[in-house]
Amino acid sequence: MYYVTKNVCDVCVTIQEASCAYVILIMAVYWMTEALPMAVTALLPVVLMPWLDVMSSKALCSNYLKVSNMFLRMHCFLRMHCLEDFKQTKLRCITKP
To answer: What residue segments make up the domains of the chain, in order of their start?
Structure first.
């Protein structure tokens, strides 16, 4: 299945590639607007990629949850959580007289 775009370059983009780009775009918007907590936004590919038929959930989770990447992800989750708590604490300190 190919989605063909007609533009200057005549680029052929598969539906899987377009779906992957959509997930990245959604994640970028959620990260910038903080519509969801950052830890939830980081887990969106685990839900969206199999749902949009980009990758199977088995292949995605085996790459997403490797031991070498797990420590980095846990560090990022904890850092994001602490940053969100710091922002809330800072806002509470500023608003209180």
So the answer is: 2-95
